[in-house]
Here is the input.
Amino acid sequence: MRTIREIHEDELDELIRITVEAFPGMKVESRADRDRMRERLAKVMNEPIVHFFGVFEGAAMIGVMRCYDFTMKLRETRALVGGLGGVAVDLRHKKEHVAADMVRFYLDYYRQKGAALTALYPFRPDFYHRMGFGYGVKMNRYSFRPDALPAAGVGAVVDYLTADDRDDLAACYDRFLARTNGLIELSPHMLDALFDDTSARIVGYRQNGALRGYLVFRFEAAPGENWLTNNIQLRTLIYDDAAALLALLGFLRKQADQAGRIIYETQDETFHYLLDDPRDGSGNLLAGLWHQANTQGLGIMYRVIDAARLWAVLGDHDFGGVTLRMRLDLTDTFFPENAGSYLINVSEGRATLGSGTADVELGMDIADFSSLVVGAVDFERLQAYGRVNLSDAGMANVVNRFFAAGRRPWCLTHF
Ligand SMILES: CC(C)(COP(=O)(O)OP(=O)(O)OC[C@H]1O[C@@H](n2cnc3c(N)ncnc32)[C@H](O)[C@@H]1OP(=O)(O)O)[C@@H](O)C(=O)NCCC(=O)NCCS
Here is the structure.
């Protein structure tokens, strides 16, 4: 019989075997590599927000996954969101629905815990899209010369941050989170990992003693260059206001003599407004005279797991100020307990679950609905693509206002 349960520390070796065989690219090959991995995972599994699960047939572990109890900023609310990572199936047991069983278990686990939403980084977007996960906002990879950054903040004083600045850094991140959409709260072990990373430099900008912004970067060898030429990999850029941002960018600009280019991967799709020269150095022209400014990738995906509870979670959100009675028909073939017909009563933008007759009926799949609800896509686009069924085309503008994306969701947490 197949069971799924949290694994114990003395079962870590088996979890490591399955994980390493599933992800050979992790290059955990020697005994010492495995011991290091075991030591690290033994610590992680004791973090209160992390749960390691195994799939067992009898006594044999045949699949593993990691679940995370994240708190995510979803529109105006901080909500419990279940994260999934480290999904791996024993090579001998693929195509036996082990992964499907794990994902269903994970969705149900967080539904029971009271979450309305889950999130993951897919090894293949199509695999999880079929399971009802919707696309998040794309990642942009910018590559620019340091002197393309604004010079306004070059004179500002910045300094390295150390573990002593941990609370200030956490507070600065939290203020950024409060102003944005989609960010996940930093847990103590994530903060530890940041300060333990010896290759990362953390630079902060203070105003009257208060930390107003920070960035995290590391150097990387520039491809094909000699050892004196390096690039800067900018990992994180957090700021309270434009003054803090310009100060941090001023610091980066001053590295022009040492760094060939700055590589910045961000969901900020308008970052090029900050650059004198937004071209990414590839020299590529697209469709005639369009200069390649960044490349893009799809990553984080979201999934609503409790379409009824969602409206209570979003109780503080103003759905475009509209007043409307909308019947929402959701298909969810992978997690049918979530599928169904929901009557949403919207009064001056406040949405609650109700019953009775509707002014308009809207049908769609759970994956697109999930992208819509987090603000990753506009209703108008989904309608243009024929991905929704609206009973009255004349109501499209009102429904579009209801789903207005506002701030796109960003995620700065790797899991
Ligand atoms: C990728 C991996 C996890 C897949 O594991 P697996 O156990 O072989 O996958 P499953 O057998 O559960 O396949 C998924 C099933 O879900 C089913 N499924 C997907 N969406 C569905 C839906 N909406 N409704 C019903 N079933 C659905 C699929 O049809 C498939 O079943 P089928 O093969 O009978 O068609 C595994 O190959 C692996 O460990 N790979 C290496 C590591 C890796 O890449 N991990 C992923 C990290 S995120």
